[in-house]
Amino acid sequence: MAGILRREWPLITVLGLVILGLVVVVSGHFRKGCVVIAFALFLALFLRVLLPADGAGWLAVRSKRVDIVVLAVLSSATTVLSLWVPPPNN
User: Fold this and answer.
1) Higher pLDDT pick, 27 / 87
2) Model pTM score
3) Residue 59 falls within a domain, yes or no?
4) Which domain holds residue 23?
């Protein structure tokens, strides 16, 4: 079990941030939670660029180029859309 956790630390870190972002969204802060999720996607992109395929663990889904392009599009789109949503009028 410890070996799996040691190998999959990039994925566990990214998923932990995504869960944190979802908790923030559920607590009523939609924009802040989406920014945290976008940060998690940028972190996944950063880790996928820097780590070799065997070091990236389950972040390495397809070829490195495809993973980088998909993560770049998702993280950029999530950032733009989370900042584009107008804040609630209270």
Assistant:
1) 27
2) 0.89
3) yes
4) 2-84
